[in-house]
Structures are given as C-alpha cells and as structure tokens.
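Final report, closing paragraph on structural work. Over the funding period we assembled a curated collection of sequence-structure pairs, and we close with a single example.
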Amino acid sequence: MNLSTKEKIAKIYELVKRGTTEGEKAAAEIALNKLLKKHDLSEEYLLTIHLTEYEFKYSTQLDLDLFVQLHSFFFKGKEFNATKTGFTRKSIFINMEYLDYVLLSTSYEYFRRHMNAQFKKVCVPIINRCRSAKTKNARRKELQAEFFSRYVIKSKIFNDEQITQVDSSKLSQKSKQDKERISGIEGGNYHTQINTGLYLE
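Its predicted structure, as stored:
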C-alpha cells in the first residue's frame, strides 16, 4: 500500500471520528469499510494509521525555533518526537495525525513567511551595518533571540508559562537599544480552520 492510499484511509478515518454531521460520519464509515476490505486491512490497523511521518523543510535557526514553538503552542503536553537532518537537506521529520499535520503545516508556512519578512525588514538593515562576515554573523545571532521572543509574543503563539519578566536595569545599553529597535515588529495573525477540512472524495 502506497503513502497516498494510507493518507486517504487516515483522512476518512478522521472524518468518521470528527465529521460535522451524523450523515457525514455514516458516509465516511461506509467508504472506510470499503477501503479496508479492498486492501485486506483489519480494524486493528486503524489504531496505528493515525500516525504518519511528515516532512517539514527549514532554512534557518529561526525556522527551527518557530517549528518547535508552534508545536508547543498547538499541541501543549504532547511529546515532541521529531528528527532533524542538516547539511544539503534541511528537514524535520515527525509522526503526526493527519489533522494535526494540516494545522501545523499551514500555520508553519504562514508564520515562517511572515516572520522572515519581518526579520528582513527590521533586523537585516542593522546586520548590514557590520563590515565583515564574522561581525555580521555575530550580530545576527545577537538579534535573533530578541527578535524571535518579541515575534512570538506579538503573534500570540505562546503558552503563559513561557513568559518571564526581564529586569531591564541589568541589561547592557546595547541590549536595551536592540529591544527598542525590534519593538516595532508586527506579529502574525493566523486563524485556524473552524471545520475539519476533511471531505469524502
């Protein structure tokens, strides 16, 4: 059985469990039973089919931080069981339920584009003032942590326990200036789907 067939079965199984109407659930159950019979699969198979390995691509440390943050925000309490590749192929692989994948993938792509645009707009001009590649990389690293924290807060994609108070009197003048420069960034505004997003084909 190929991946597309497995995903189709998983999708219909989710519709059986989460359909918006009883008629929708009943139609999905009929379609599910036909697929199980066609591929000679037992109902026990459905206990594990809800998890599929999905791939998420990333380019920068900011992308990685965003992916982890979104998983923590949307799936609070769920184990973060992912593997990461690097070098020529930068990808994150994680086993998820189909609907969780839809939520994470759509929010990740939205926030990643928006976040990187904000970083380019606010932080890159500051970084470009540095003369050498070494100092630019060091400045980028300095700004990324402050930028990311501020972006997460502005985008409201955090859990309450992640917020900590910072004693500004203990900050260096440079850190204070960076906070001021980054304060004007715009957060993302992402709305999750109201319905399941699942339909019989």
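The first strand starts at residue 52 and ends at 57. The chain has a mean pLDDT of 87. We thank the funder for supporting this effort.
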